[in-house]
Design a protein that fits this description.
RNA_pol_sigma70_r2; mainly alpha
Length: about 180
């Protein structure tokens, strides 16, 4: 069954339909929100609030045309609401520990490379970071990203292109400074 079918079931009183949607989307949605907020507890709260909103909308009979972009839109808007709060406006910096030892050297290298990429992405503006996370970590298509963020497909394409260009500069600068994985 399609996600929209589960929303239809929810709208006619089948509360267990939400279970399937939670099963399908909790992990990828949590990963997306965590990458945006860099806070495990807050990410979990946002994901839970997202599913509560979905449940309430379903009970009201709302069935989105495309569920996947809709759920990411809800989560993205909740993240935006969080950022708007004055109490949450603080810069977050993470330190990389690039030391590798022992027989698990290659595993640590891969993890560090991934962390370096995430840290580099987090240096981008939220507009670029959001489209890149949705495209490359959540595997949404351009049209789905456009629906999620209420922007045109051309804006999505532009933000992805510019975001990748900025990311490339950050990675090259880090590499030049010796901050990267091999530094």
């Amino acid at each position: 069954m399609q996600d929209e079918d589960y929303m239809r079931r929810l709208s006619v009183g089948n509360d267990s339909a939400l279970d399937t949607l939670v099963f399908r989307y909790h992990k990828p949605l949590y990963g997306y929100v965590y990458r945006l907020l860099l806070d495990e507890k807050l990410a979990e709260d946002i994901v839970q609030e997202t599913f509560i909103k979905i449940y309430r909308q379903g009970k009201r009979g709302h069935i989105p045309d495309q569920f996947k972009p809709w759920i990411y839109k809800i989560a993205t808007n909740l993240c935006k609401d969080h950022w708007k709060k004055a109490s949450t406006r603080q810069e977050q910096f993470t330190d990389l520990n690039l030391e590798t030892k022992g027989q698990i050297h290659h595993i640590i290298d891969r993890q560090l490379e991934r962390q370096w990429m995430v840290d580099s992405l987090n240096q981008l503006s939220i507009e670029y970071r959001t489209v890149l996370y949705l495209r490359f970590y959540q595997d949404l298509q351009y049209a789905e990203i456009a629906l999620t963020l209420d922007i045109s497909i051309n804006t999505v394409k532009t933000r992805i292109a510019r975001g990748l260009k900025h990311l490339e500069k950050i990675l090259k600068e880090d590499d030049r400074k010796g901050v990267g994985v091999n530094g």
